[in-house]
Design brief:
Largest sheet: 5 strands, antiparallel
CATH class of the largest domain: Mainly Alpha
Strand content: under 5%
CATH architecture of the largest domain: Up-down Bundle
CATH superfamily of the largest domain: MFS general substrate transporter like domains
Structural class: mainly alpha
Length: about 700
């Protein structure tokens, strides 16, 4: 017996069991009351889902804001940071197929609530290394200098010039630090915590969006999804602002005397309190799980969708109280039936060319998105000389609100103008093409390399400089016996940065509080453009005078680009929802998410990190001699690599969209009511390509043979 026949029999049985003489007024009143309860519960679910999207986006935004902090704290290269960032997608990958397929047949709100609990635990786990690691140690000029002692940086590099007691104490300390450094792999806990976050986040999108779309009216569906996606963008705003705040706080705040910290947030060795935000985000994720345990398994469908109830995603396996498996044997047969339908469902899904085309285009787009979002704070720091705190603040307060406004605008446009699926495809195409053209203009908005002696300029201040193993050494510092691995930059009064005071040839130094000034620096003197005493101060020199203006232009173009690209987000998402059969909705969203994770989310941060590492000019070294994180990048190479890679797939995306547009161009639209007529056409909510219809027309979600 087919599904529609079963539904008719159940409806007849319900009607025949009504008490004789029941008032029609009472029936209408009960129906109206039930509709109000249904609407209320749907809005509760909408609010709960929005809060969960906010919680997961808060943690994700905060993670992106702490990429540089994690890299410096654990002293690891960008490629390894990319692996840590990609662990979220790996966790999602492990369970996404099963959660999206089997979860659609079970109690979806409770599964989402369970995922939130796992996500909260994983977020808290990320912060745990801070409580087990030793205090952060940064490279500094001398642990023995203070306000009353004046030492020569040039002589300090030679042990023969130091008292024997100081040499022995220094060597003993170096040995202890080396042993501690060799046994430190605490970044693994960050990896595992992010992995748990990915597992916990898995059911939120496919089950939450499908649940919302199932029980909302067609007119409200796009608007509700737009609201959820907008809240999801607001989350990273708070995430980056929280990252900006925590970046101003020293990493070991509460554990050390801050008066003894000699570096500032502008120093390239500064590490903020990266762990603090994860504690906050973890608690928010745990709180977000609570409402879902009070929500029902399903809700009555709106009248506009009652006619298509037989095609409902849940109807085949879940009919709420109509079918109740009381025995373990019944539950086992139910699971086996779902398992047998898995491969045919997968085949049917990939047999839909529009779905496959959209999947390919999205994969290319998200490769660019994941790479850029992961390293954008780092890009702003390195390219425009901004602090980590300011980079996070700018992204959170300026860039992300533009994305939120664009997504919300897309939902409003879809609802107000009742745009058809074909119109949604055109809007998606137009916003993508225009956004990528704006993105290409960012190539010209960069700053030149800082003048660093031996790396970007010669010690005489001329460009270019030839790169070789002894490039940091010159005649002016030949007698100083300096370490080429040390990175404690000093800004000379000539505007050139030196890798250390020793390499600057500085003869004397004085300290007053946290301020350390070096005098009689021989290397500064030979490149000085004006008369002076050849002095220098701790820290890197500022970028050239035109860099702040370039940074302002970058922000303006970046905001416009973000808004333009996000404007097509909701139309594209509606296109995805409407190009599949309703019973495969959660499964299709799950496979879509799986493909994005595997083909974009996992590899993009890794290969972006590898490309960024290739632009490194000066690597730092750990206390045992192993290579650590990069200290100085080639700004031009950094810009070209991080911009050219996202720009190259733009042409592929445009080509895919054009192919989509050419396929749609042969469609004609006619008003044919709300039912599907004809044979050999796939029924349901979706717009798709029928296999055997020689001539076909579409009216938003309709397919019928003529």
């Amino acid at each position: 017996m087919d599904t529609s026949s079963k539904e008719n029999i159940q409806l007849f049985c319900k009607s025949s069991m009504q008490p004789v003489g029941q008032s029609s007024f009472k029936t209408e009143y009960s129906s109206s009351k039930e509709k109000q309860r249904c609407c209320g519960k749907l809005k509760v679910f909408l609010g709960a889902l929005s809060f969960v999207y906010f919680a997961k986006a808060l943690a994700e935004g905060y993670l992106k804001s702490t990429i540089t902090q994690i890299e410096r704290r654990f002293d690891i290269p960008s490629s390894l940071v990319g692996v840590i960032d990609g662990s979220f997608e790996i966790g999602n990958l492990l369970v996404i197929t099963f959660v999206s397929y089997f979860g659609a047949k079970l109690h979806r709100p409770k599964i989402i609530g369970t995922g939130c609990l796992i996500m909260g635990v994983g977020t808290l786990l990320i912060a745990m290394p801070q409580f087990f690691m030793q205090q952060y140690r940064y490279e500094k000029y001398s642990p023995f200098s203070n306000s009353t002692l004046s030492l020569s940086p040039c002589l300090l590099e030679s042990d023969s010039q130091l008292p024997l007691s100081i040499i022995e104490k220094s060597q003993s300390k170096r040995t202890d630090e080396c042993e501690m450094d060799a046994g430190s792999s605490m970044w693994v806990y960050v990896f595992l915590g992010n992995l748990l976050r990915g597992i916990g986040e898995t059911p939120i999108q496919p089950l939450g969006i499908a649940y919302l779309d199932d029980f909302a009216s067609e007119d409200n569906s796009a608007f509700y999804i737009g609201c959820v996606q907008t809240v999801a963008i607001i989350g990273p705003i708070f995430g980056f602002l929280l990252g900006s705040l925590c970046a101003k706080l020293y990493v070991d705040i509460g554990f050390v005397n801050l008066d003894h910290v000699t570096i500032t947030p502008k120093d390239p060795q500064w590490v903020g309190a990266w762990w603090l935000g994860y504690l906050i985000a973890g608690i928010v994720s745990l709180l977000a799980a609570l409402p879902f345990w009070c929500l029902p398994k399903s809700l009555p469908r709106p009248r506009s969708r009652e006619d298509s109830n037989s095609s409902s995603e849940k109807f085949k396996f879940i009919m709420d109280d109509h079918t109740d498996y009381q025995t373990p044997l019944g539950e086992k047969s139910k699971i086996m039936e779902m398992a047998r339908d898995f491969l045919p469902s997968l085949k049917n899904l990939f047999g839909n060319p529009l779905y496959l085309l959209y999947l390919c285009a999205s994969t290319v787009q998200f490769n660019s998105l994941f790479g850029m979002v992961t390293y954008k704070p780092k890009y702003i720091e390195q390219q425009y000389g901004q602090s980590s705190s300011k980079a996070n603040f700018v992204i959170g307060l300026i860039n992300i609100p533009a994305v939120a406004f664009g997504i919300f605008s897309g939902g409003i446009v879809m609802k107000k103008f009742r745009i058809s699926v074909y119109g949604a495809a055109k809007l998606y195409l137009g916003s993508s093409v225009l956004g990528y053209l704006l993105f290409l203009s960012l190539f010209a908005l960069g700053c030149e390399n800082s003048d660093v002696a031996g790396l970007t300029v010669s010690y005489q201040g001329t460009k270019p400089v030839s790169y070789h193993e002894r490039a940091l050494f010159s005649d002016c510092n030949s007698r100083c016996k300096c370490s080429e691995t040390k990175w404690d930059p000093v800004c000379g009064e000539n505007g050139i940065t030196y890798a250390s005071a020793c390499l600057a040839g500085c003869q004397t130094s004085t300290r007053s509080g946290k301020t350390l000034i070096f005098y009689n620096c021989t290397c500064v003197g030979i490149a000085a453009s004006k008369s002076g005493n050849s002095s220098g101060m701790v820290g890197r020199c500022q970028k050239d005078n035109g860099c702040p203006k370039m940074f302002l232009y970058f922000l303006v173009i970046s905001v416009i680009t973000s808004y333009t690209l996000s404007l097509g987000g909701i139309p594209g998402y509606i296109l995805l929802l409407r190009c599949i059969k309703p019973q495969f909705k959660s499964f299709a969203l799950g496979i879509y998410t799986l493909a994005i994770r595997v083909l974009a989310g996992i590899p993009a941060p890794v290969y972006f990190g590898i490309l960024i590492d290739t632009s490194c000019l000066k690597w730092g070294f750990k206390r045992c001699g192993r290579r650590g994180s990069c200290r100085l990048y080639d700004s031009n190479a950094f810009r070209y690599r991080i911009k050219l890679v996202p720009a190259s797939p733009c042409y592929n995306v445009t080509g895919l969209h054009n192919e989509m547009g050419s396929n749609h161009s042969s469609w004609s639209f006619t008003a044919k009511g709300s039912h599907i007529s004809g044979t050999n056409c796939d029924a349901g909510h979706s717009v798709h390509f029928p296999k055997y219809c020689s001539t076909f027309h579409f009216k938003e979600k309709l397919c019928f043979k003529t």
